[in-house]
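Weekly structure sync, notes
Attendees: PL, DS, HV (note-taker this week)

Item 1: Flagellar basal-body rod protein FlgF
DS walked through the input record. Source organism listed as Salinisphaera aquimarina. Sequence as pasted into the shared doc:
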Amino acid sequence: MDRLIYTALSGATQTLDRQAVVANNMANASTVGFKGQLSMFRAVPVNGAGNATRTIAADTTPAADFAPGVITQTGRSLDVAIDGDGWLAVQAPDGSEGYTRAGDLQQDATGLLRSNGHAVLGEDGNPLVLPLQADVTIASDGTISALGAGDRPNTLAQVGTLKLVNPPVAQLGRGGDGLFRLKTAQGEQAGPVAADDSVRVVSGALEQSNVSPVESMVAMIGNARRFEMQMKMISTADENERGANRLLSLT
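Item 1 (cont.): predicted structure, written out as tokens:
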């Protein structure tokens, strides 16, 4: 059998994997604070007996696209957008600390502040709990103040501070829950990151996804055409094999 079929098959398989990454980015084009996943092809030589004349394709997702998204004003008091570099610290379901740029914060029935269901952490590393039915304001440094219903303006009180961090993006990895975490050089999860006082937020605003729907659509079309090309190569290799068998049968 012509080994071309294996080369083409690897290309087709990895193209499908890349299409899945692009489709996920496309599906999150309107998700607040979402960072697109990067996808790259690389050639992997086939080791074995004989000359190294064949390579297969491998698709990798080395990192996310950390380019900032567009900040839009919403006027909602619990909406915050990271101004420049930085992240919001939240608590993952397993209790670990994760980081997100999704600033559409919500307050549940117990007063717990959440981001996409994850508890938002304060500077002390504990989840933030705000007074119910209070008028909340968030300052640019993440300080949260609350004014109870019917209270006088001069009774405005500080009730907590968002934990804002700014770890090196090269050491951040995205988990299956969509949260980013700091990784060690060995790829293991590192401990919590210390708060960074230089990180600022824009209150009453949200950072949109940095995924371009147009670019994602073009990439999906390109992947579809690339897959068709690889399948054509497999079909051609099969036709060549059949033709060779017919010639050999005549001898």
